[in-house]
Specification:
With 532 residues, the protein is mainly α. It contains 25 helices and 5 strands. β1, α23 and β2 form a beta-alpha-beta unit. α1 packs parallel to α6 and α18 runs antiparallel to α19. It starts with 5 loop residues before the first helix and ends in a 19-residue tail after the last strand. 43% of the residues are buried. The C terminus is likely disordered.
Length: 532
């Protein structure tokens, strides 16, 4: 590009600085701002990797014994644990730092992908700013989640595959394979979505090589390598899933609903076919896109992309297939994993990048035929308006979620009665919080949490309690919700576990603590002997 207006460069720099400011602001807040149950579950697993050492069968002590109920392969958790051990930084902030690092690192594969699509250099940086300023990435990249790690490896897999095919480079193809394995093991849904653009752009690349008169012929080895890049990560995902399921089957509570092959999990992940056909489902998707996408002022980024895509296809047929591939990647998320996207807003972290890339490519193509002054004005002016809308939307709707959270220290102090109840090895019995890991994480205690769907299943609960014996006692009973008013239930639990009948009442429920008997002769701070 010969024309590089200083104003555009200055706006890009200001935009990146604004995103960085919002990413690091209120760094000391607890990891409970949104979907705190998922953040604290990841943090709980990481905490016990720090305590007990690095292992693949990592503990998530929220559902009783055995404590190991592995989900994803713990790449992110291990990196956070190692960094905590190396630096002694607080766990919450270290988890945020690693998450943000992988998001910033994602700049590299996105930049390479745009270069592969022959987008000019300055527009690549403008596109990166658009993506980073989108509230979805601005908010979730600073949370204690695996999302940015999985997305980085997925995008790196995509970019390295295309570069390896284009250059016929074994080093790039080996890098793509490693990134694909890491992406699949870290989070299969993110990797499977990334397979859509990877296969689509790989086909376009091989087709262009076949048509080019001076390119080397496409060999069976190259096609075999491409097949291996796709199949080997899928095999690794299958092997890890089988191992994780076998481990979960040892835990009575986990076995009741966390086995991936169970009907419960399949329905939870994919949802029924009719869910995709109900208008309300797509109302939620479009609203969520507008709420966490490019800003409510534009109603929805999806609408803009459709309009721009239609125009780009009409006036620039050469960008038709790349844009359609990116849109197919975006829609593959909610179409395949319908219920996950319906329930969790943070799942759009996995696919929204492809929507924004499609929008950027369409805008770039439409403005390419204009003369430089008008091209710059229309292209960058429209994009900067989108960036400003995203930042303002984040400030108005997401920043209050962060500001409203107490610090991690404040939460630990609030749960200190649970932290000091009974002996250090005793655990918590929790009703009314499903299996939200907030209480075990911030109290520092292992727990047997009774999920809502089994609170009436006496057989599963009895088996889970039986596995605690004989070396594990209940330090405290936590009851939240309707059960807190069930006097017969409370009385039976208090008798069974030798707890104080008078609870400590908190906003997190009623805490019935273990009866304590200090050694003979111990004196209270008021000067009276405890035992007579």
């Amino acid at each position: 590009m010969q024309y590089k207006p200083i104003l555009v460069v200055a706006l890009l720099v200001i935009g990146f600085l604004a995103c960085g400011f919002y990413s690091f602001r209120y760094w000391d807040r607890a990891i409970t701002d949104d979907y705190g149950f998922r953040q604290t579950q990841t943090a709980l697993s990481t905490d016990y990797l720090i305590r007990d050492g690095i292992t693949l069968d990592y503990q998530t002590p929220a559902l009783g014994k055995p404590w190991a109920i592995p989900f994803e392969f713990p790449i992110y958790q291990i990196l956070v644990a190692l960094l905590v051990k190396l630096t002694a930084w607080p766990l919450d902030q270290t988890g945020r730092a690693v998450s943000l690092f992988f998001w910033i690192a994602s700049i590299a594969p996105i930049y390479l992908l745009l270069a592969h699509l022959r987008v000019e250099r300055l527009w690549r940086w403008a596109t990166l700013l658009l993506i980073w300023s989108t509230p979805t990435y601005l908010f979730w990249s600073r949370t204690f989640l695996i999302e940015s790690t999985a997305l980085f490896f997925s995008l790196a897999f995509l970019a390295a595959t295309l570069r390896g095919l284009h250059r016929r480079s074994r080093a790039w193809l080996a890098t793509a394979l490693l990134c694909g394995i890491c992406a699949g093991l870290q989070k299969p849904t993110t990797f499977l979505i990334a397979l859509v653009p990877t296969i689509g752009f790989a086909v376009l690349e091989l087709r262009s090589q076949k048509r080019h008169p001076h390119s080397r012929p496409i060999t069976s080895k190259l096609l075999l390598a491409l097949g291996g890049l796709i199949l080997i990560p899928l095999v690794c995902i299958d092997l890890w899933t089988r191992h994780a399921d076998d481990t979960k089957k040892l835990n009575p509570v986990a076995e009741s609903f966390l086995i991936s092959s169970s009907l419960y999990q399949k329905r939870w992940i994919y949802g029924p076919l009719e869910q995709r056909l109900v208008p309300n489902t797509w109302d939620v998707f479009i609203y969520r896109e507008s709420f966490t996408g490019v800003g409510r002022g534009f109603q929805t980024g999806l609408f803009l992309v459709i309009v721009l895509t239609a125009a780009a296809i009409r006036f620039r047929p050469d960008v038709r297939l790349p844009i359609l591939i990116l849109l197919a990647a975006y829609f593959s998320g909610p179409l395949i994993f319908c219920n996950l996207f319906y329930v969790h807003s943070y799942y759009y972290y996995e696919n929204q990048v492809y929507l924004l890339l499609a929008f950027s490519l369409a805008l770039y193509a439409l403005c390419e035929s204009l003369v430089p002054p008008w091209r710059v004005f229309l292209r960058y002016g429209f994009l900067m308006a989108m960036v400003a809308a995203g930042l303002l939307h984040f400030r108005a709707n997401f920043l209050p979620l962060i500001v409203g959270q107490p610090t991690s220290k404040a939460f630990r102090e609030e749960l200190s009665p649970l932290s000091h109840a009974g002996n250090p090895k005793d655990i918590l019995l929790v009703y009314g919080w499903d299996w939200n890991s907030f209480i075990p994480y911030y109290s520092g205690r292992k727990a047997l949490m009774i999920p809502d769907h089994i609170k009436s299943n006496d057989a599963v609960i009895a088996k889970a309690l039986e596995q605690l014996r004989p070396d594990t006692a209940i330090a405290a009973l936590v009851v939240h919700g309707p059960l807190a008013d069930d006097k017969d239930f409370i009385a039976a639990q208090v008798r069974a576990f030798d707890l104080n009948a008078t609870p400590v009442r908190t906003g997190w429920g009623d805490f019935y603590l273990k009866r304590t008997k200090p050694p003979f002769g111990e004196v209270h701070r008021d000067g009276y002997n405890v035992w007579k």
